[in-house]
């Protein structure tokens, strides 16, 4: 009888502990009511579909592994990192693009993407392919705030704005589409000076978000951009290996970004900024692809993986691979959904620890 009582008491205690844990986790998830995204093609979920640029991905094979097999404007065969991150926080499984007419403020109240493929911190980068510069993304966000207050009321909207998780992912285009391609910035800046120039813009952008009510911000640094299939293809004199000069630039940028994040956390009360540094995990995937179940890393799934991106990635090309999960990269510039998932799973524990 005594053993039975002890067993019942222990079982009850265990069930109570589990129940409390469920309640705590549930309450924690509620602390991030929305995920709000700024950046470039690494996170764009379809905004470029609605603007006058040639840089679009609203056609197959893009999106062929997305739910329903529909091309959404994501530069991927499926989902991009903000989708996985939002799902991990219990918000939603896909973040809609702000300019997509299929969605309304009802959808955007729990997550919205302002990103534009091809953009960068530098306004001059956005001009290369006529995409939205960062200042326009911010203007759209201000418009969104007004719509949100009209939809849920001022008090609730301010709570969503304050508790939302803000994701920023950009910087690669500033180097690969601007600095190393066009002469203007190289004439005025050394690499180090250009890094500082970009980070100055990033700092001002974060301060502006803070002034508008944001309190939880994640900034993604640069990945090993010298190992993108496009950069390997053009690295003729380096036997089509990774361009280590570009990778070193990315590492240097990330170190400076980490210092900026420390500065922002010290100077802005109530703000929490986290560095979502994906360089190491992407580098490990590229260095040890078989450990992650990949068969091909040098070329992309979409055709040969040399120059294919946007309209050069064709569903009719017989070289486009049937199984994207065997490839690290989807097109010459962007990861497959599988890679996006692995990278997101690497970052999510840090985000959950800091923003729950």
Automatic annotation (TrEMBL):
Q: Which GO terms describe its molecular function?
A: hydrolase activity, acting on ester bonds
Q: Which family does it belong to?
A: Belongs to the 'GDSL' lipolytic enzyme family.
Keyword NAD: yes or no?
no
Organism, by scientific name, is: Lupinus luteus
- What is the protein's name according to its record? GDSL esterase/lipase
Keywords on this record? Membrane, Transmembrane, Transmembrane helix
* Lineage: superkingdom: Eukaryota
User: Which Gene3D superfamilies does the record cross-reference, listed alphabetically?
Assistant: SGNH hydrolase
- Give the stretches traversing the membrane: 6-25
The organism's lineage is: Eukaryota, Viridiplantae, Streptophyta, Embryophyta, Tracheophyta
């Amino acid at each position: 009888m005594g053993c039975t009582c002890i067993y019942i008491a222990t079982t009850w205690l265990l069930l109570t502990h589990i129940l409390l844990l469920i309640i705590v986790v549930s309450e924690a998830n509620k602390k991030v009511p929305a995920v709000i995204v700024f950046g470039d093609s690494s996170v764009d979920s379809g905004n470029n579909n609605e603007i006058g640029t040639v840089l679009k991905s609203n056609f197959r094979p893009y999106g062929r592994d997305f739910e329903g097999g529909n091309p959404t404007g994501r530069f991927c065969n499926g989902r991009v990192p903000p989708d996985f991150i939002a799902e991990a926080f219990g918000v939603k499984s896909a973040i809609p693009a702000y300019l997509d007419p299929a969605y309304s403020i009802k959808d955007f109240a729990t997550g919205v993407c302002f990103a534009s493929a091809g953009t960068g911190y530098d306004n001059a980068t956005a001009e290369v392919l006529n995409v939205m510069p960062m200042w326009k993304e911010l203007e759209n966000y201000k418009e969104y705030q007004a719509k949100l207050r009209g939809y849920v009321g001022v008090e609730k909207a301010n709570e969503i704005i304050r508790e939302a998780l803000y994701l920023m992912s950009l910087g690669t285009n500033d180097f690969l589409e601007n600095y190393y391609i066009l002469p203007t910035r190289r004439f005025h800046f050394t690499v180090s000076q250009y890094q500082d120039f970009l980070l100055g813009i990033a700092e001002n952008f974060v301060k502006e978000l803070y002034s508008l009510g944001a309190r939880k911000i994640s900034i993604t640094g640069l990945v090993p951009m010298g190992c993108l299939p496009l950069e390997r293809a053009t690295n003729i004199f380096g036997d089509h290996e990774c361009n280590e000069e570009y990778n070193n630039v990315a590492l240097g940028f990330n170190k400076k970004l980490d210092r900026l994040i420390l500065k922002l956390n010290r100077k802005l009360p109530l703000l929490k900024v986290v560095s979502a540094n994906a360089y190491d995990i992407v580098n490990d995937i590229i260095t040890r692809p078989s450990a992650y179940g990949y068969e091909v890393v040098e070329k992309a799934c979409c055709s040969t993986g040399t120059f294919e991106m946007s309209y050069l990635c064709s569903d009719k090309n017989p070289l486009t691979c049937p199984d994207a999960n065997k490839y690290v990269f989807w097109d010459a510039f962007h990861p497959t959904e599988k890679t996006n998932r692995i990278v997101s799973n690497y970052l999510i524990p840090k985000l959950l620890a800091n923003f729950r």
